[in-house]
Amino acid sequence: MAGVDNKIVEGDEDGMRLDRWFKLHFSGLGFGPLNKMLRGGQIRIDGSRAKSDTRIQKGQSIRIPPNIAGMNSGAAIGGGKLTSNTIRDQHDVDVLKAMLLYEDDKVFVFNKPQGLAVQGGSGVNRHVDKMLESMRNKKGERPRLVHRLDRDTSGVLVVARTRGAAAELTKAFRHRTTDKVYWAVLKGVPSPYVGKISNWLVKERTDEGDKMRVCRHGVKGAVHAVTDYRVIETAGPNLCWVEFQPETGRTHQLRIHASHMEHPIMGDPKYFDIENYEFPGGIQRKLHLHAARIRIPHPSGEGLIDVSAPLPPHMVQTFNLLGFDLESGRIDEAE
Predict the structure, then answer these.
(1) Under a CB-based contact definition with an 8 Å cutoff, are residues 245 and 295 in contact?
(2) Alpha carbon 160 to its chain's center
(3) What is the DSSP string of 295-331?
(4) Marked catalytic residue, from 12, 92, 150, 268
(5) Does the bond joining 269 to the residue before it have cis omega, within 30 degrees of 0?
(6) Relative to the CA of 56, which of 74, 258, 281, 332 has its CA 20 to 30 Å away?
(7) Strand intervals (E) in 179-258
């Protein structure tokens, strides 16, 4: 049997409840046994008794009694024991690793495929958030989503690997210190070629599910949405490739803004509202919206994460059909 152990609270764990800390490090330890050991003084912080709701601080030493010191907290990507459903977990690891664009000790960046949901919902059993269970680290800490993409939108998805990284990345999205670039193929060509869309959006329930619509300022539940756009290339007057840079991050923002310009995104099942429109041959009826690039401050406070994602297969097919040159959309890395 393992002897008494002492673990030092790390920076990412500062401010965490003690019971949550034990759940991360010793997932097999139940709440009842934990409280019994706390009441008996077997678990201590810097030599002093503690309670389950005690907030721990970076650098503190937590006494781990012998009967739990030998427990291991679960799977880590790339090695160690997998969780109970080994086959499913290994499959999820393989799928996520195939999507991986960038990783370090605090961040994963994935290229999410079109059609894969980020989070669960009605009728959604397979989604990124659930798959992340298979990528817990050696301490049992689960990666955390810090933003979302629509199910039908492909591209760059940032995931925090630690609690502290999640807090910093979420702050960057909230304070808009993140640059996001999306590529889309639109019906028609906006005029002017470069512009800004600024209006108010409100969510409404329809027979087709929740949708956003443009509304007046002051409507209950309305949120302000701002998007910069530029036309990169055109295929005559009928189709174009557009770059969107959202200044805000509202639900379906780019999709409703494109529709509001009367140039909806090709293949959009919710907002492509041109009746009796015949899709050109060779263009699939899938949403042509892709999160192409993200630049976000690294959660360590040092430097930027700058990652680009290749187009999904259906958009590659459309670009080839229309003769769009990917070099036209490249952005100088020094910008």
Answers:
(1) no
(2) 9
(3) EEE-TTSSSEEEEE-PPPHHHHHHHHHHT--GGGG--
(4) 150
(5) no
(6) 74
(7) 179-187, 194-206, 209-215, 223-235, 239-246
pLDDT in tens, the chain (335 residues): 457 888 898 877 778 889 888 887 777 788 888 989 999 999 999 999 999 999 898 889 999 988 776 565 443 443 334 344 455 577 888 899 999 999 999 999 999 999 999 988 777 778 999 899 888 877 777 899 999 999 999 999 999 999 899 999 999 998 888 999 999 999 999 999 999 999 999 999 887 778 999 999 999 999 999 999 999 999 999 999 999 999 999 999 999 999 999 999 999 999 998 888 888 989 999 999 999 999 999 999 999 999 999 999 999 999 999 999 988 877 554 34
- Secondary structure (3-state) at 33: helix
**Chain Cα centroid distance, residue 14:** 24
Q: How far apart are CA 143 and CA 161, in angstroms?
A: 4
What is d(CA 182, CA 163) in angstroms, rounded to the nearest whole number?
28
- The 3-state DSSP composition of the chain as helix, strand, coil percent (nearest 5) reads 25, 30, 45
Nearest to 245 by CA among 225, 270, 217: 225
β-bridge mates for residue 260, sequence order: none
CA angle 57, 58, 61 (to 5 degrees): 80
The answer to whether residue 150 is catalytic is yes
Structural domains of the chain, with CATH: 5-69 (3.10.290.10), 86-167 (3.30.2350.10), 179-329 (3.30.2350.10)
What does the DSSP 8-state code read for residue 225? E
d(C-alpha 27, C-alpha 29), whole Å: 6
- Candidates 307, 278, 294, 268; CA nearest to 185 is 268
Report how far apart, in Å, the C-alpha atoms of 86 and of each of 80, 91, 215, 268 are: 11, 8, 49, 37
- For residue 132, report the phi and psi dihedrals to the nearest 5 degrees: -65, -15
